[in-house]
Amino acid sequence: MSVVTVQLGQCGNQIGFEVFDALYSDSHCPQGLCSERENEAYQASSKERFFSEEENGVSIARAVLVDMEPKVINQTLSKAAQSGQWKYAQHSCFCQKEGSGNNWAYGYSVHGPRHEESIMNLIQKEVEKCDSLSGFFIIMSMAGGTGSGLGAFVTQNLQDQYSNSLKMNQIIWPYGTGEVIVQNYNSVLTLSHLYRSSDALLVHENDAIHKICAKLMNIKQISFSDINQVLAHQLGSVFQPTYSVEGSCHYRRNPLGINWQVRPPLPGLPTLGKVSLNRELHFNTSIANLVILRGKDVHSADLGGFKDPALYTSWLEPIDAFNVWKTQRAFSKYEKSAALVSNSQFLLKPLDTIVGKAWNMFASKAYIHQYTKFGIEEEDFLDSFTLLEQASENWISFSLRS
Amino acid sequence: MTQSVVVQVGQCGNQIGCCFWDLALREHAAVNQQGVYDEAISSFFRNVDTRVVGDGGSISKGKICSLKARAVLIDMEEGVVNEILQGPLRDVFDSKQLITDISGSGNNWAVGHKVFGSLYQEQILEKLRKSAEHCDCLQCFFIIHSMGGGTGSGLGTFLLKVLEDEFPEVYRFVTSVYPSAEDDVITSPYNSILAMKELNEHADCVLPIDNQSLFDIISKIDLMVNSGKLGTTIKAKSLVTSSAGAVKKRHQKPFDAMNNIVANLLLNLTSSARFEGSLNMDLNEISMNLVPFPQLHYLVSSLTPLYTLADVNIPTRRLDQMFSDAFSKDHQLIRADPKHSLYLACALMVRGNVQVSDLRRNIERLKPSLRFISWNQEGWKTSLCSVPPVGHSHSLLALANNTCVKPTFMELRDRFTRLYKKKAHLHHYLQIEGMEESCFMEAVSSLSRLIEEYNQLDATKCMPVEDLPRLSIAM
């Protein structure tokens, strides 16, 4: 099953390149720590997911590159071609001359409708190249104008046109101390729209990855390249093939088929009036966890810690909430590696921070004229705020329900 | 990629403009070793086959044939423009993109705005349209002028209205040289106030510069060079102080060197739009991030390096020094005190081998000494451009929207009031058709309204930063 990636804006395209590079390098890594047959199966499965093959043996990424100004796409295309091993298809790019100016409204209301047909056609072409489509992986930032605004618009379109396919958005949570001054507005608008049209949001925070580079990797002068490579590495370790639970010798068919659907408690339960103050909420109180193990001794690894009921909301049995995927094939030359994808409370605090800052700015009406110029009115802001406050409330009350 | 057109008006505007084109050519020559006409060059230059007569000569790709600046030169006296056209840059300018007259505006805003405005309106429109036609995707007009005289001030601001009507979607960035208190043009307060009204209403973004600050900077450089201090030899190819093609001789007046600083400002402002980097910043992002309310679009700029001219391998300490310098008054292009006023927004545009961790480290370091408005505590916009300026390994341009411009405007208003109370020289203005005392009154009110907006924001300076009550959701 194949995944079609849509890379939007400077951030999306820079990261997208690193992701495909990491996936390709890992697939072609000779030290798989497993049998040759297994290695070949791994390679074939990974290839089918993320690459299609051109005649002279060069792999072509299953990707559509979108940006409203040309510099980054040009750089991305040439960097990929330089590797000599894989590249992007020249005609899978959509580019304009003038960027979105960090303006969500411009990305969503102007660029979106204007270029809808062209972009969706490009995506359609990529989909047609797949034997069977598992879903879409959309890489975008929240702080800017194209990734955020146009990204939200495209995701909505994908929802309408491909309602049966999974849409997973890789969103980049901006640094707390600004990259873009209106990043909180752009983030609020993006999240509220994606909430309605995306199936899953995979979140990476720039601050967190920065800390990894500084503290765990001891990099002295951290560049965006370093950050993007760490991210790509993480994503690679999640999306590369693994065996399905049934333990058969086929690799899992749907890489995006993480069971994101969680059934909330039955409606018959009494609703909580006030939040009980006794029960503490931890950042890792989860409703779903997925652990991915690769390399040596995967079958004997002790995962008891992940089955601790304290980790989960009280109405969930760990057995329903916890999943494991394994493969003996090592990832990226690491003898053993593990990845955790978690649907937990961790995002509540960062979300609260962003919404709070955006709200303070909104109250003073600062920068609003830049958005109303392009059709996003104060009401649209209010709707977004309401939706996000509601989502946070839902989280908290679901978790505390007993 | 987009293109920009520079409109240089008046003596000051044209002199600065000339420096700008000289530096731009040298910058692109240093970066573009192959001589291929690429998108970066096309942002400010056309590629023309000079053998072709008439308009058909534009070449969009391939080898550079002959570069023509995307510029319109306007002056109501011929002296400055003629000197440019006889100087080393004469081939860079399209002889059809000039508007000149002989009589000059007599340091009278009304003559520049009303008389020459109506006289040359058609021609101006025609030249602007022509330059826009030559652009694939025109994004911005850069207007360069001074506020104190007649042509730059009057005709330069007349242009703004024309641009707004004719090209409403294209940004209008204005670089305005404000007169200092010791300015030798007596009527400069009148001209400046009348021009301010136009800037308030028709500019997207204004970069105020004052001559005194530029002069101070040049004096300090001269002092350091002459005192032979270690490590302060100015690199021969540095664009900061040297320019081969500008108008006046270096030893006469320091205007040449002063103009170069402003030219550097414009180059650095547009570098992230022209060249690649890990975090790009286009011109429309400047307006988006730094203008929270339409009227408050005056940005204080500071530029480094100016004095210390770097070696090739800078250890981290020196890099941090660059950031500290950008927030020191010595590097500002306008006299103001941002550290003791309120920041509404701040942008850091870095060029060269500087990475995101360097940026963040310095923001963390400098933040505590700066006061930001309550609703924009983390109001930083940053950009990283990989291409450094010629002769340096990195540089930083800081643009701040800060209430510190208020005293400058108040002082301007005071100088105006002193003059106006005596009705001094007023008749020169009132005798121009279309000028009445009400024009002056309206201009002053416009400025007062602006000052009042800054006042209101300043009033929040002493209030504690509190979070506003959030929406409460009924479950």
Automatic annotation (TrEMBL), chain B:
<keyword id="KW-0342">GTP-binding</keyword>
<dbReference type="InterPro" id="IPR008280">
    <property type="entry name" value="Tub_FtsZ_C"/>
</dbReference>
<dbReference type="GO" id="GO:0000278">
    <property type="term" value="P:mitotic cell cycle"/>
</dbReference>
<dbReference type="InterPro" id="IPR003008">
    <property type="entry name" value="Tubulin_FtsZ_GTPase"/>
</dbReference>
<dbReference type="Pfam" id="PF00091">
    <property type="entry name" value="Tubulin"/>
</dbReference>
<protein>
    <recommendedName>
        <fullName>Tubulin epsilon chain</fullName>
    </recommendedName>
</protein>
<dbReference type="InterPro" id="IPR017975">
    <property type="entry name" value="Tubulin_CS"/>
</dbReference>
<comment type="subunit">
    <text>Found in a complex with TEDC1, TEDC2, TUBE1 and TUBD1.</text>
</comment>
<keyword id="KW-0206">Cytoskeleton</keyword>
<feature type="domain" description="Tubulin/FtsZ GTPase">
    <location>
        <begin position="49"/>
        <end position="277"/>
    </location>
</feature>
<dbReference type="GO" id="GO:0005813">
    <property type="term" value="C:centrosome"/>
</dbReference>
<keyword id="KW-0547">Nucleotide-binding</keyword>
<dbReference type="GO" id="GO:0005737">
    <property type="term" value="C:cytoplasm"/>
</dbReference>
<dbReference type="GO" id="GO:0005525">
    <property type="term" value="F:GTP binding"/>
</dbReference>
<dbReference type="InterPro" id="IPR004057">
    <property type="entry name" value="Epsilon_tubulin"/>
</dbReference>
<dbReference type="GO" id="GO:0005200">
    <property type="term" value="F:structural constituent of cytoskeleton"/>
</dbReference>
<dbReference type="Pfam" id="PF03953">
    <property type="entry name" value="Tubulin_C"/>
</dbReference>
<keyword id="KW-0493">Microtubule</keyword>
<feature type="domain" description="Tubulin/FtsZ 2-layer sandwich">
    <location>
        <begin position="279"/>
        <end position="414"/>
    </location>
</feature>
<dbReference type="GO" id="GO:0005874">
    <property type="term" value="C:microtubule"/>
</dbReference>
<dbReference type="GO" id="GO:0000226">
    <property type="term" value="P:microtubule cytoskeleton organization"/>
</dbReference>
<dbReference type="InterPro" id="IPR023123">
    <property type="entry name" value="Tubulin_C"/>
</dbReference>
<dbReference type="InterPro" id="IPR000217">
    <property type="entry name" value="Tubulin"/>
</dbReference>
<dbReference type="InterPro" id="IPR018316">
    <property type="entry name" value="Tubulin/FtsZ_2-layer-sand-dom"/>
</dbReference>
<comment type="similarity">
    <text>Belongs to the tubulin family.</text>
</comment>
<keyword id="KW-0963">Cytoplasm</keyword>
<dbReference type="InterPro" id="IPR036525">
    <property type="entry name" value="Tubulin/FtsZ_GTPase_sf"/>
</dbReference>
